[in-house]
Design goal:
There is one protein chain. The protein is of the alpha+beta class and 384 residues long. Among the domains are: 150 residues, no CATH class; 86 residues, no CATH class. It has eleven helices and 19 strands. Helix 6 crosses helix 7 and helix 7 runs antiparallel to helix 10. GO terms for molecular function: methyltransferase activity. InterPro entries: Type_ISP_LLaBIII_C (IPR041635).
């Protein structure tokens, strides 16, 4: 991991002061790897009545069929209590459910124990969410999707919709501008953070323009791979994972042949799969195995989570091929991150002396971003 010659690197929590605890769904069934399953589960819930509907819902202390809650910001869902709810569900939205695992969630506040509305208010095409993982090799994830994974705190890049008001310590960009001789942008600074962050979530900074540029370029590459938007990534040398033997409709398990660089999914075969992709772990969990298990583990009979695709969708195969590529390319960046040695540091003490740190209390709280009414329980406007 990045090394420094001092022990006074600032904390990520000081550089990006506003953070939010992770969401807590409270029940698994509103989310699924495919968009059709949550809709089918909703329909099944509404067809049930009385105690059957309650059992299917899986009530908790935070949410029952009688809970009265408002809409999630930016989402059009009913606010009627679920005990008498009717009609179609909201369209599922894409979320990051686990490291590198994009799934679909019903964006209904009535179904989510702790939804963190402040994150939904700033989720848009300009936003990037940084998620703490507790993993030494990948201490931070970055995603354009709303993160629902249960890891560490979530730090949005922007405090307001539309990519305005960066979630950076006030005065940090001005101070870096003076030291570097050129003004970094908020995305530049996030890229540096992704490249330089240590496992203890300190982030060494530098005033060396050449080193800064190298770190930013490294972080931009990681950010592009994690966000998985734009042009599809490709392995170098023309290598590309292909389906060598068709996947069965219900793959019974995943097995990796290291010598042949082949991933076996039942009778299906995908290769080449670089060992670095298969071995890629976050917080001690192999990403590819967890991704596959999320799509093949049967739900408990009689529960809504048991409603799943009858056969392996083609879309999952495409996602798997891309994920293999992304993990292999991210693994290639790890040596460069480890070699990033910060000289001519900008220390936490310097930032404190300049008045950049500590960040003022308002910077650690959500910004007031409401420019429209949000519907509260039972169709009434929320008073915020």
């Amino acid at each position: 991991m990045p090394s420094v010659t001092h022990d006074d690197a600032p904390l990520l929590a000081d550089l990006m002061p506003w953070s939010v605890a992770p969401l807590r769904l409270g029940r698994a069934w509103p989310a699924a790897p495919d968009p059709a399953s949550p809709k089918a589960r909703w329909d099944t819930l509404l067809k049930a009545e009385g105690p059957d509907r309650e059992a299917l819902f899986e009530p908790t202390r935070a949410r029952t069929l009688h809970s009265a809650v408002g809409q999630l910001p930016g989402q059009s869902t009913g606010t009627q209590r679920l005990v008498r709810a009717a009609g179609p569900c909201a369209e599922p939205v894409r979320v990051l459910a686990a490291p590198f695992d994009e799934q679909w969630l019903l964006p209904d506040h009535r179904l989510i124990d702790t939804a963190r509305p402040e994150l939904w208010r700033v989720a848009d095409a300009s936003q990037v969410f940084t998620v703490e993982t507790g993993d030494a090799g990948t201490p931070l994830l970055a995603t354009a999707l709303l993160p629902t994974l249960r890891t560490g705190r979530v730090r949005p890049l922007y405090r307001r919709p539309g990519g305005t008001e960066p979630n950076l310590a006030p005065g940090l960009l001005d101070h870096l501008s003076a030291r570097l001789g050129a003004r970094p942008t908020a995305p530049d600074t996030l890229a540096w953070i992704l490249a330089a962050a240590r496992p203890d979530l300190t982030v060494p900074l530098t005033d060396d323009p050449g080193l800064w540029a190298s770190g930013v370029e490294l972080g931009r590459r990681a950010l592009w791979l994690m966000r998985r938007d734009g042009e599809r990534p490709r392995l170098p040398g023309g290598r590309r994972p292909y389906v060598r033997a068709p996947l069965p409709s219900r793959p019974p398990g995943a097995h990796y042949d290291r010598e042949e660089e082949t991933l076996h999914l039942g009778e299906g075969r995908i290769s080449p799969v670089p060992p670095e992709a298969w071995d890629y772990e976050v917080a001690g969990v192999r990403v590819l195995e967890a991704w596959f298990a999320a799509r093949t583990a049967p739900g408990e009979p009689g529960t809504l989570a048991a409603i799943r695709p009858a056969a392996w969708p083609q879309a999952w195969t495409s996602e798997l091929l891309e994920l293999i590529t992304v993990l292999a390319l991210l693994a290639e960046l790890r040596p460069a991150r480890a070699a990033l040695t910060v000289t001519s540091p900008v220390t936490a003490g310097e930032l404190r002396q300049a008045g950049v740190l500590p960040a003022p209390d308002p910077a650690r709280r959500p910004a007031s971003v409401l420019d429209h009414h949000e519907e509260g329980p039972e169709g009434q406007f929320a008073l915020l």
